[in-house]
Design goal:
Blueprint lengths: L11 E2 L4 E4 L1 H7 L4 H9 L7 E3 L2 E5 H10 L7
Antiparallel strand pairs: 1-2, 2-4, 3-4
Helix pairs in contact: 1-2
Length: 76
Amino acid sequence: MRIPSMPAPSPVNPDSGLRLLSPKEAAPLLLTTPGNLAQWRHQRRGPAYIKLGGIVGYRLSDVDSYLMANLVVPES
């Protein structure tokens, strides 16, 4: 008898007010794909992320910080 696997819970703690973005949700904000985010994690680059077991999540504040760290201001 095969026991069906349960879907992985979303990495959200409703008490903390913290919502983690999945790689699929974070990728468009970073103008990339979830696959590229996986490569970035392997290469230890890109925005900070949280990993709980096999689940990866991105805080919106870390995505924003990564974007601002790559801000280029042209000289006037």
